[in-house]
Write a structure and sequence with these properties.
31% of the residues lie in helices and 22% in strands. It is of the alpha/beta class. Strands 6, 7, 8, 9, 10, 11, 12, 13, 14, 15, 16 and 17 form a twelve-stranded mixed β-sheet that branches. Strands 29-30-26-25-24-31-32 form a seven-stranded mixed β-sheet, sandwiched between helices. β8 (214-217) and β9 (222-227) form a beta hairpin. It binds zinc ion (2 copies). One zinc ion (ZN) is lined by residues 154-155, 157-158, 176-177, 179-180.
Amino acid sequence: MRRSGRIRGIVQGVGFRPYAARLAAELALSGRVRNEGRGVRIEVEGEAPAVRAFEARIAAAPPPARVEEATWEDASEEGEAGFRIEESEAGGPARWSIPPDLAPCADCLAEVDEAAARRHAYPFTSCARCGPRYTLALGLPWDRKRSTMAAFPMCPECAREYADPRDRRQHAQPIACPRCGPGLRLETGQGVALAAGAEALEGAAAAVRRGEVLALKGVGGFQLVVDARDDGAVGRLRRRKGREEKPFAVLVADLPAARALAFLDREEEAALRSPAAPIVLARSRGVGLAAGVAPGNARLGVMLPASPLHHLLARRLGFPVVCTSGNLHGDPIATGDAEVRARLPGVADAVLTHDRPIARRCDDAVVHVVDGSPRTLRLGRGLGPVLLPAPWAGAPVVAVGGHMQVAPVAAADGEVLLWPHVGDLDGLAARQALGVAVEALRGVVGRRATVARDAHPDYGSTRLAESQGLSHVSVYHHHAHVAACLAEHGEEEALGVAWDGVGLGPDGTAWGGEFLEVSPRGADRVAWLRPFPLAGGDAAARDGRRCLAGVAAVAGLAGADPRLLALARSPLAASTTSAGRLFDAVAALLGVRERSTFSGQAAMALEHAATGAGEAYPFGFDGRVLDWAPAVRAAAGEGDPGVASARFHATLAAMVAAVAAARRARVVALTGGCFQNARLVGDTSAALWRRGIRVLLPERVPPGDGGLALGQAWVASRRLGSGSETSPGDGGGSPSPSE
Ligand SMILES: [Zn+2]
Ligand SMILES: [Zn+2]
């Protein structure tokens, strides 16, 4: 029999075609395989049982490949001999194929460590199953001649490996060796050359040992590295980078070293060792690191080497190092040598760089394992770009996200391409970076694509969409949050709980504690947290006392700062339903944390302060408005902040369960930045499961604003397709032409 299959997922640039060829040889099948537009096409012929076995093993292809979808149909037999890998169709529609960057595989690491190997200690070792891709790609489709490796012609030995079907480097685009590939260079912070090759690596290690700040040219941009055991070095890095308290991630050489710093379960270890090599948030052991690495934080971000260069440096050092993005607060990560000197003046004492240019910037990804499932908190290196099936996607759409943690997407013809994290849009450099990303995505889906954006007129992404004169559709913030969760799970409708800091609602107020029934027809706001005023507007995001003053004014609590209370009571005070600001208020009320130097800091402190299981406090619910005032009054009289925090979390979970019961919901989506809180997720999921309700959580897409673009694309595709859409209006789902 002969079968023809179309395979989609992570199947290009990851050694998938050689895998198919080996499999066919093993099963004595003939046929061919080639890359095409958005995946791989396979024709296979032979005895029926062998063909069936082939299909099953294609579906279960090992990492880094990941088959999302395989559709097979019968074809007429051709009787050819053997199985061959065909060249990609030249000039074909292979524009969607851009594989992510992958950490070195075990074989490549063994080669780097093997004294007699040709690539011993070579920092740019890679093969068909590992190495950088997205960050090297100058154009699409992915190919060496359209990458920054084009400047390094292969030596005869590398060329032989590239052509050999038995070699794991067959068709591996970024391969190189010490003879033909890029090399290292060590410079001073001012750009004066110090050393090259192995001496450069040794000099960089010595600088870190001396307590200096090293700028390291990583996979998707420069990183800043210091000795994580050295309080002085960590303090210097914080001062120079302008980063007060936000935790730093730590790089270690291997898994045993990671285990020495954090308690790791099986899933966390699997996430650390996955080909993306993300930063994994895990419970800190509280030993072995300077206090300034993650001050007052129960969690630690740990990562393993994402490239042979990181591997060689971490091995040589033998102790944990801080490894953080090479940028100043809020700016995108720097990618070029001149950029490091211009944008990070005086930050680095030494610069370990090389001559392989970074074509596209990409931050490290962040993953948090909750209830045994890895959840992406930042779509960075290795996790993006990624192509997912999206049956809802029709007319081409590029969605630009919100203002913070922006990560755009493109959707068309049944697929959606998630692009890596760009960052916060306060600075010009970040807005320019988003412009570059949007251009790339329009190149993928077509320049006439509609742009989907947030309804907030002042967001950097909104302004970009408008300034370029692109046709655009606006989608309300919380509607997009819920839609993203539906899109990821392939669901059509759910009761969505969208809890976050703040987003613009259709009534013009600051929403953030919403319950929306979302379906392809639109969104209905069915319940919300009782609104409260904020003392002094935007400043409340960093000052929990300002949130507490508003909460105190509503709940009749004593003890709030009288000046702030007066501000909260002013008729000019903006009111909000924000769950995030309610967390900030309770953190301040319980004396857990008043000021936040980064987004979510107070809520995180409250989560970590909680002790024991905790029983819900009383609250009010009239079928629409959830009144937290009785709970806050009870928390104020609790005495033990750990118990009060646990009971506050349990109260919020009970509120979600009450709304779900009142709406007879069968499926509930929990999303928005507040659902990065593992305790809130755990309590709420348990309360819903007990009632037989299915829970959807963001997993491959961040729950915070990094996931907004997927939801915007889902809503915009639906609207462009049907022409009828309702907004999450106050109660009735009235049509809103402005949305
Ligand atoms: Zn490899
Ligand atoms: Zn070579």
